[in-house]
Design a protein that fits this description.
Layout: E1 4-7, H1 14-23, E2 30-39, E3 45-54, E4 66-70, E5 76-81, H2 90-111, E6 114-121, E7 127-133
Antiparallel strand pairs: 1-5, 2-3, 3-4, 4-5, 6-7
Helix pairs in contact: 1-2
């Protein structure tokens, strides 16, 4: 039985998180108002619970569920088993966080009446998003 570890994030918007996970290839992402138990690779219910879940059958046949549990501060902590960290490692999480940040900024800009103009990449590898009043 593979142990789960939780990683803190700054992710607060469940809809944007689900959109990013779908972009990363997980077409089926569950979102529950009440946390549900995660399932291990043997089909066993684990003690860990999450509101946003990628079920193991959508990852690989030997995987455990991956979850995102809402914390008291409003952020979602990632719950990933030690086994699944071979694929869902630091690089995977960095990419998810970058996608989330960009989508969250786009969503906030639209809500604020701004129109996206362009995205430029700096020499250091970072990106700059440019907006104008709509």
């Amino acid at each position: 039985m593979s142990a789960y570890t939780e990683q803190k994030t700054q992710i607060t918007d469940a809809d944007v998180l689900k959109e990013c996970l779908k972009e990363k290839g997980y077409g089926t992402v569950e979102h529950h108002t009440e946390a549900k138990q995660l399932v291990g690779y043997h089909g066993d219910l684990r003690q860990q619970e999450a509101e946003i879940i990628i079920r193991r059958q959508h990852i690989s046949s030997a995987s455990n569920d991956i979850g995102f549990k809402k914390q008291t501060d409003g952020t979602y902590g990632a719950i990933i088993s030690d086994y699944d960290k071979y694929k869902h490692n630091d690089a995977w999480m960095v990419d998810l966080k970058k996608r989330y940040a960009e989508k969250k900024i786009m969503k906030q800009a639209k809500t604020s009446g701004l129109k996206f103009v362009r995205k430029t990449k700096s020499n250091d590898g970072s990106f700059k998003l440019q907006f104008v009043k709509a």
